[in-house]
Write a structure and sequence with these properties.
The chain has 429 residues and is α+β, with helices and mostly antiparallel strands. The protein has 3 domains: 5-90, no CATH class; 123-333, no CATH class; 350-429, no CATH class. 17% of the residues lie in helices and 26% in strands. The chain has 9 helices and 17 strands. Strands 4, 5, 6, 7, 8, 9, 10, 11, 12, 13 and 14 form an 11-stranded antiparallel β-sheet that branches. Helix 2 packs across helix 3. It is elongated and about 85 Å long. The termini are far apart.
Length: 429
């Protein structure tokens, strides 16, 4: 299965390292080797053609100019992130070496030497919680008073636990003694404080791992388990009403089968794009577990009197963190130098030439008899030497100037005047 680690090489990576990549692609000897690594073949580009830009799924070749002086380019687009994948798979040992360096040394003590291949590992708090919680919430009935499958899965919840070391985290299904009815359905709640990522993080991969403590299938229904978004009432407790806060959109796209669920190690749920997008960079990431093939699908399992099937996980209240639920996020941090080299400078050189200078040589208010050629609506001989300070702006209202200019004239727009905006007050320039 695709591990998605290649998503670390997204648009931001190509932007930050465009110069290095282009050198590797175009250097006389190295270029042929690197193009081969990227799977840019001889039939894609001529040996003497230069690549002028490259991204996750494209590269561009300049083709010179037309007779009218217009630049011509040819861009080769792929239907998927071909070049992101090639960067990862061709040099995977290198990236993992850099990642190990970042994790073990750079990010901890010498961040200026970090290569930006960072991971964040988070666990829920043990009881009593201070920031995050893990636990389970369920809909349960006393034996003999169970309900239909549709009713139990749509319940608001009436049972919860957030302090057991190996409680009902995961999923659990129990049949009632009355034929066709059900008396217990549980879902897990797992919260992680991922605020240290910050908004500048670009997440490339996320794995939520649950260490199995028990599984059984007396109902012979082989229930699977998947990860979903949860929305508990608070971040530090699981209450009964949180049962229906576990939503139904998979965060992985691939539940773990009952046969694949381990009770002697971690079960790794690798997030897809949906799951990665639900990792909070500035707050608490909230996920949960539910059974996919019966609970989420709203498909009643095969009933067998009072029997149960399910999967339990160790919780944060287990001593230490060796068996705790954990969320591992792989990410990079945007550098302030990430802006393209071709970005406009702070100079106002691109301002329209029709903008009047800060000090017009002929003020209409002072010289109403001036000929129309002195009107500020014409291009001044020199553009402003500095952009207006915050709260100020230069503007032109077209019309015919007269001897007296007042604020009302500006509002009605029946005269021509150079004006400066100070806050919300218009005054003659």
């Amino acid at each position: 299965m695709d591990n998605k680690y290649w998503t670390a090489f997204g648009s931001l990576f190509f932007l930050l390292h465009q110069g290095k990549l282009l050198w590797l692609l175009n250097a006389p000897v190295v270029g042929r080797w690197f193009r081969w690594c990227m799977r840019i073949r001889s039939w894609d580009i001529g040996p003497h053609e230069t690549i002028s830009s490259i991204g996750p799924n494209f590269f561009t070749v300049p083709l010179g100019f037309t007779q009218r002086g217009e630049a011509r380019f040819r861009t080769d687009f792929r239907t998927h992130a071909k070049f992101s994948k090639r960067l990862y798979y061709a040099f995977a040992p290198l990236w993992w070496t850099l990642h190990a360096w970042d994790w073990a040394f750079a990010d901890r003590w010498i961040p200026e030497l970090s290569f930006g291949f960072s991971t964040l590992t988070k666990y829920p708090d043990a009881h009593p919680e201070t920031t995050t919680v893990d636990g389970s919430a369920g809909q349960t009935y006393v034996i003999g008073s169970g309900v239909s499958w549709a009713t139990i899965r749509a319940g608001a919840g009436n049972s919860a636990d957030d302090s057991s070391a190996s409680g009902d985290g995961g999923i659990w299904i129990t049949a009632d003694s009355v034929s066709g009815n059900w008396r217990a359905l549980y879902r897990g709640i797992y919260l992680f404080d991922t605020s240290s990522l910050t908004a500048a993080a670009t997440i490339s991969a996320t794995v939520l791992s649950l260490y199995g403590s028990n599984k059984q299938d007396d109902l012979s229904i082989t229930p699977n388990v998947d990860i979903y978004v949860s929305g508990p009432a608070t971040n530090t407790a699981v209450v009964a009403g949180d049962f229906d806060s576990v939503l139904t959109t998979s965060q992985t796209g691939s539940p773990i089968t009952y046969a694949g669920l381990s009770v002697v190690g971690y079960n790794d749920f690798t997030f897809n794009g949906t799951g990665i997008g639900n990792v909070s960079k500035t707050g608490i990431s909230k996920f949960g577990t539910a059974n996919a093939n019966y609970d989420v699908a709203n498909s009643a399992p095969t009933w067998a009197t009072t029997n149960s099937s399910g999967f339990n996980t160790y919780m944060a209240d287990q001593t230490g963190t060796a068996n705790d639920p954990k969320l591992v996020v792989t990410y990079t941090i945007s550098s302030p130098s990430a802006s393209p080299s071709g970005s406009p400078s702070g100079s106002p050189s691109a301002s329209p030439s029709a903008s009047p200078s800060a000090s017009p040589s002929a003020s209409p208010s002072a010289s109403p008899s001036a000929s129309p050629s002195a009107s500020p609506s014409q291009s001044p001989s020199a553009s402003p030497s500095a952009s207006p300070s915050p709260g100020n702006a230069i503007a032109t209202v077209t019309g015919t100037a007269t001897a007296t200019i007042i604020e009302t004239d500006i509002v009605t727009g029946n005269k021509t005047i150079a004006i400066t905006l100070n806050g919300d007050t218009w005054i003659p320039a």
